[in-house]
Amino acid sequence: MRRTRILTAALALAAGLLTGGPPAALAAEPPPAALAADTYTWQNARIDGGGFVPGIVFSRTEPDLAYARTDIGGAYRWQEATKTWTPLLDHVGWDDWGHTGVVSVASDPVDPDRVYAAVGTYTNDWDPGNGAVLRSADRGATWQKTGLPFKLGGNMPGRGMGERLAVDPHDNDVLYLGAPSGKGLWRSTDAGVTWKQVTSFPNPGNYAQDPSDTSGYASDNQGVTWVTFDESTGSGSTATRTVYAGVADKENAVYRSTDAGATWERLPGQPTGYLAHKGVLDAGNGYLYLAYSDTGGPYDGGKGRLYRYATATGTWTDISPVAEADTYFGFSGLTVDRQHPGTVMATAYSSWWPDTQIFRSTDSGGTWTQAWSYTSYPERANRYTMDVSSAPWLTWGANPAPPEQAPKLGWMTEALEIDPFDSDRMMYGTGATVYGTENLTDWDAGGKFTITPMVRGLEETAVNDLVSPPSGAPLLSALGDLGGFRHTDLTKVPSMMFTSPNFTSGTSLDYAETKPDTVVRVGDHDSGPHIAFSTDNGATWFAGTDPAGVSGGGTVASGADGARFVWSPAGTGVRYTTGFGTSWQASTGIPAGAVVESDRVDPLTFYGFKSGTFYVSTDGGATFTASAAAGLPSGDSVRFKALPGGKGDIWLAGGAPDGAYGLWHSVNGGASFTKLAGVEQADTIGFGKAAPGASYQTLYTSAKIAGVRGVFRSTDQGATWTRINDDAHQWGWTGAAITGDPRVYGRVYVATNGRGVVYGDTSGGGTGPGPEPTAHCSVTYTVTNQWAGGFQADVKLTNTGTAPWNGWSLDWSFPDGQKVTQMWNAEHAVSGAAVTAKNTGWNGTVAAGSSVGFGFTGAWSGSNGKPAAFTLGGKNCAVG
């Protein structure tokens, strides 16, 4: 149903948000005070899915070990005990935001602790950085990175093909990576540490979705798209002799090496006119299966074929389940049942209407059955039942006429995998979720298998705006692809996204400060209105009327009393209305494309910003006047908000490294602004409940302060700041929106570009340097993950005294000989079983009543008992 992934954040970043250091204008400012830190607990406001999952990879070595990759939201590991996914790339920071796009994942077929990810979001200039290969020896708990001399495209056309990254099943120090953009095939012989181009590989590809696209997005050569090994041609730890590779070239789509990658040849006799999306090898029966489409996907594809290549004889057989004349889709999803290799499955990934199709053969492609078929058109008979009660929004609130059904079986179904250890379990990715079944073989017995979302823990929405009203639901969101949600319980999936109308992407929303049941939202729409209103706090909606010329959502603001609204849509100028948008009038004095907000006290006052100028209206948006305020950012990467309860109290964040960049405050309705010293960069601003004993609301921002990029909180109007995230929780780019909760002190909601809405709760508050501690501490030690020979643990150290700390050093001894292998958010030293963990440069200041957290991975054998005692300054801490 959703054919586009949001590019708004990428386009904003391309304007320069992430390049270089702080602007020169900040060089003369005094150095900031010591940066304080607080320990937060982070989790997602549950949506469950919400984006495209182009790859699922099961381990061939260990049962129940699987990984999923997303196009913009990182990679995940399956947790069998809880049937959930664990995010693995939340550590990716602001400067490397592109590394949240994952073009390929490879699970080591020899050592199940090893996993690799090829990362990078765009191959054009939307992503300023190059791609990288990440490698982990602890199943993705921690990573090491090797940068590449080219870009990778986790969110580019063709991203459902693959896997581009592959590990030799015999010599697992050997890896191959298929590159886009004409960069060819690359190889590592030291387990991903270093990479060299395979110069003997003859064809870097030539297919682009749209060669005329001047942005470089659709015109990029999709390159070398997959690599697979014939494990029957190797033994022991000797490199596998026969390797196959797919290339984005319709006339020369498959290549083979029979000398461990030294030389390569075009595979003789292969079909032409198609791209090979997948190549899956059944070494037992000697077949290479190939799924072909006439385009690269993941949205397009009008014709496709399935082929079987006999590796011993070189015979090609067309095993397509339908005649070419009857296809209106390409094939992509492709898998073999490793327990019963004659069982093969494939998907019609680009069959958007009436539904995707899944095909299954139990005789190596000789005959096929399909997941659904027509009885008497338009009626369908399904071999499956669907239960989406865990994520009911997957119906999209639709009640379509046959042959369409709600929920759909899927769309963009390029990832399809049968569990190699369990013939009954199959998972497949769609444009919105991961579906799966655990009784797949009922298909063959004539019964029905059950499909359910297998996506909990995998959150992949791109968030454009957030509000937390003072009453009603704690969180309302505007999201790319899904429109938005109303969360009445952050730990539960909402029953439905916003409907009446459904926006393809929500771009902005607001509520009336003194009447929070009145809410307005705007967004993009394929056809129909771009604005909607609610009078029950977002529970139900009704559409407004668009003024002429509207082409997109833009930004919207509600007057404080909900009686009037100002809208700055795409495609036309700023408009205002009284009532619920049945007619609109043009605002004067403000340029088209301005960002608009409202004063949270005066219902007639609205504000705008465009290209360095701040605008003010005191007549309900009819006329705006440019403020004389100078020194504001000259570009349009700016977000600002007015403080609830404070007339004319405005905070503005934004800028770019080559100009003004930071955080500004106005107390006179925007007539003038004061730049906050010490805030080097800031991109969002939000407000939450005041700290205990404070009268002014708490500020939150995604910013760079004291040289550190992070999410920050201030309880004293920006005089001092506390970093509240840590190096393990960065989520790439967080520059779209942030808001505190007006009802819960310390709670903050953070917008990400692909990891959904993350929210954090504090364990304490306050800031300020003080003497080094000598006692008054407590420690919570938690093993968060454990596997054969390895584990991951989190440590929370709390200042239970009355004075703040300025530096800390925590000591303990392991009871069972465990060893620390890597630690984050703390420096460490080890002597036998004894461990010392010290603060880093940014988290040494811990206020009284606050906590600081760090984590590590370790090795163990026999037992993995918890340390019995922790000491700080030579004195024991309480152990929680």
From TrEMBL:
Pfam families for the chain: CBM_2
Originating species: Streptomyces griseoviridis
Domain CBM2: 770-880
UniProt entry tagged with the keyword Hydrolase: yes
Recorded GO MF terms: hydrolase activity, hydrolyzing O-glycosyl compounds; polysaccharide binding
Sequence similarity: Belongs to the glycosyl hydrolase 74 family.
UniProt-recorded name of the protein: Xyloglucanase
GO biological process entries: cellulose catabolic process; xyloglucan metabolic process
